[in-house]
Amino acid sequence: MQETLIQFWQNHSDTIIALCYNLVLTVVIFFASSFMAKAVRKTILDTNSKVKKLDETLIPILSTVASYAVYVIGGVFILDIFGVNTASLIALMGAAGLAIGLALKDTLSNIAAGIMLLILRPFKAGDFIEFGSTQGTVKEINLFTCVFETVDGLYIASPNSILWGNNIKNFTRNGKRRMDIVVGISYSDSIDVGLSVLQKIIASEPRLLPDPAPQTMVVSMMDSSVNIQLRAWAKIDDYWPTYWHLNKQVKESIEEAGLTIPFPQRTLHVVTEQSMPMLKEKS
C-alpha cells in the first residue's frame, strides 16, 4: 500500500502540486474578492453620505452592482487558473446577453430609463411631480417602475420609460412657488382702490416671501369686469394654505372696500311684431 502511494506520488507529483497551488490561489482570490467587494460597497456608501451627490435610492443599487462585478472578475480569474477558455466563455455570455436583450427590449428600456432617472435626478422621493396627465407624490424610484400617490390617495406604478419619454414638471424642487390670484371689479370702480386693497392683503400675510417681491397689476379688461391680479411667492409647504386663505381674504376685502365683483351679463333686445313697422320706417 505504501509502495503504491509512493509510486502514485512519483507519477503525479507535478499534477498534485499544481492542483494544490491552484486551489490555494482560488481560496486567496475568493477571499480577496470578498474583501474587495465589501470595501467597494462601503466606499460607495461612505462617499455618498459625505458628498450627497447621488439619490439615496441609487446608492443600494450601485453598491450591489459594484460588489457583484468584483465577484464576477474574481470568478473569471479562477476559471483562467484552471485552464478554462475565458475568452470563449465571455463571447458565449455576450451572445446570450444579446439574445436576452432583444427578447426583453421593453424591460431593458425601463431599466435604462430608471438608471438615467436615478443619475440625473429630475425628482426624488417625496417630490410632487406631473408627467403627461398624471400628478402625484413620488414614493419609490426603482429600476423598472416609479411609484406615486395621487392627491386623492390613489396608487400609481408607472414604467420608467414613460417618465423618461415625457416632460417632467417638478412642483417641489425649487422650494418655492408663485401664486396668481385674479379678481374682477366693475368698470365703474376705481382701479387704484382695488390695487390698494391687494397691497394691504400682501402686507398682512407673513407667509408670502419678500423675494421675489409680490406684485399687483391690471391683467385684462373683460366684457363685464376689469381683472386685477395679486402675484406672490410662498414656500412649498405654505403654498396651498396661503393660496386658499388669500382667495377668501381677497373677496371679503374687495367687498368691504365698496367695490363690486361683477358677474358676466348679456343684454338681449327683443323685437316684437308691433315694432317691426317702426324698424322698417327707420331703415
UniProtKB/TrEMBL annotation:
An example Gene Ontology molecular-function term: mechanosensitive monoatomic ion channel activity
Residue ranges the record marks as coiled coil: none
InterPro entries named in the record: LSM_dom_sf, MS_channel_1st, MS_channel_C, MscS_archaea/bacteria_type, MscS_beta-dom_sf, MscS_channel_2nd, MscS_channel_C_sf, MscS_channel_TM-2
Identification of the protein by name: Small-conductance mechanosensitive channel
Annotated TM spans: 16-37, 58-79, 85-104
Domain Mechanosensitive ion channel MscS per the UniProt entry, residue ranges: 106-173
Subcellular location: Cell inner membrane; Cell membrane
GO cellular component, as recorded: plasma membrane
Family affiliation: Belongs to the MscS (TC 1.A.23) family.
Keywords: Cell inner membrane, Cell membrane, Ion channel, Ion transport, Membrane, Transmembrane, Transmembrane helix, Transport
Job of this protein: Mechanosensitive channel that participates in the regulation of osmotic pressure changes within the cell, opening in response to stretch forces in the membrane lipid bilayer, without the need for other proteins. Contributes to normal resistance to hypoosmotic shock. Forms an ion channel of 1.0 nanosiemens conductance with a slight preference for anions.
Mechanosensitive ion channel MscS C-terminal domain sequence ranges: 181-260
Pfam family, one: MS_channel_2nd
All residue ranges annotated as the Mechanosensitive ion channel transmembrane helices 2/3 domain in the record: 65-105
Subunit-structure text: Homoheptamer.
Membrane topology classification: Multi-pass membrane protein
Keyword check for Transport: yes
